[in-house]
Amino acid sequence: MSPNEKIKRESYENFGGINEKASLYLTADNECLSLLNLDFQKPGSLSSIPGSNFFIGTTYIGRITGLYEYVRLSGASHVIFTANSIAYQTDGVTTSPFRLGLTADALFDFVTFVDTLFMTNGYEFIKYDDASAQKFSCPDGLSLTTGLGVAAAGLSGTFQYAYGYLTTSGYYSGVGAVATLAVAGTQAILSGFTFPADYGVTAAVIYRTSPGGQDLFNIGFLALGGQTFTDTGLTLGLLPAPDSVFFTLVPRYLEIFQNSLFMIGSTQFQSTAFYSELGQPETILADSNFEVRTNDGDILTGGKYYGSALYLFKKNSFSKVIGNDTTNFALIDVSDQYGSLSNRAIVVYNDIMLFLDRKGICRYNGAS
């Protein structure tokens, strides 16, 4: 034996948790919720093993790039995982793909909100309701063609018309260009509808003003694939045309705070966090965002809900969002000395937030 060679022997036992579902509340001190593969075979070094491509007894093409338990309000539970360019779901017995054509090897972030799974990897932003998967948000309606029909005593004056979409998730999109039509005792015939694919559209929502008015309210729906809609003097509904925007950005990270979905970082806006309306994850207003320490040469690396605030991290700093709804959200800088290198390196444990900074692991208790 070489005089410089060292031998170390360790014994590991009684890890617990065998055949039990991991739980934050049932895990003992000798159990864990997260596992990391490490290579101890090279003397003097500690290196990470590349991601696994083996899951529940099956080898999948490409490494596993996302793993999440999707629990619905009904109590139904599925494990969601991504490998190569495919997203799968499994109940532990049957595994099936539910989304194809994803960017290969891109790491996913997941959240469950209003009984829907939202997942993003910086390239694709997907929603999944346990039945079908579509792109997040929905385009605005397009322009309409208007014409006059047969006599209709209840419709006279100058009206404005527009349409948007209703999706399977209950989201109402914004409207397209407004069409003006003068009517004198006849029906109004609307045509030229289009229906975008891969957004879960179920119908077009038709909006109209009162005679000479400017405010649009719903008057009816046109089923998916419909060509024309006839207004015979229909009563204005109570639903105004939405003022939300078609959210085309693809965030890198997701987090829930005060019943709003936060979408953190994107290729186009690497220092901006966007947020939805309360309980409406796809309804995003034009000014619903925070710019975090712009022009500092740094980018957002993650976010974590901790205590009563949402913390937004960059590599060299972090800030927090406070407030209890979208009307009073405010951004406060916390530190320009510490940040997090990755969204996967921010955890809350025993009421303490820990994150990995360039200098090492940092502890934060909400004050220091």
Describe the structure.
The protein has 368 residues and is an all-beta fold. It is built from no helices and 28 strands. It has strands spanning 38-39, 47-48, 54-55, 58-59, 64-71, 77-83, 86-90, 95-99, 109-113, 116-120, 125-128, 133-135, 145-167, 179-191, 201-208, 217-223, 228-231, 251-257, 260-266, 272-275, 289-291, 300-306, 309-314, 318-322, 330-335, 346-349, 352-357, 360-364. It has a five-stranded antiparallel β-sheet with strand order 16-15-13-14-17, with no helix packed on it.
Number of strands: 28
Query: What order do the SSEs take from the amino end to the carboxyl end, as H and E?
Result: EEEEEEEEEEEEEEEEEEEEEEEEEEEE
Please, what is the average pLDDT?
88
Please bin the fraction of helical residues.
under 10%
Which terms summarize this structure?
five-stranded antiparallel β-sheet; four-stranded antiparallel β-sheet; single chain; 368 residues
In short:
The chain is an all-beta fold. It is 0% helix and 45% strand. Strand 23 and strand 24 form a beta hairpin.
Q: What secondary-structure arrangement, pairings included, does this model have?
A:
Elements: E1 38-39, E2 47-48, E3 54-55, E4 58-59, E5 64-71, E6 77-83, E7 86-90, E8 95-99, E9 109-113, E10 116-120, E11 125-128, E12 133-135, E13 145-167, E14 179-191, E15 201-208, E16 217-223, E17 228-231, E18 251-257, E19 260-266, E20 272-275, E21 289-291, E22 300-306, E23 309-314, E24 318-322, E25 330-335, E26 346-349, E27 352-357, E28 360-364
Antiparallel strand pairs: 1-2, 3-4, 5-6, 6-7, 7-8, 9-10, 10-11, 11-12, 13-14, 13-15, 14-17, 15-16, 18-19, 19-20, 20-21, 22-23, 23-24, 24-25, 26-27, 27-28
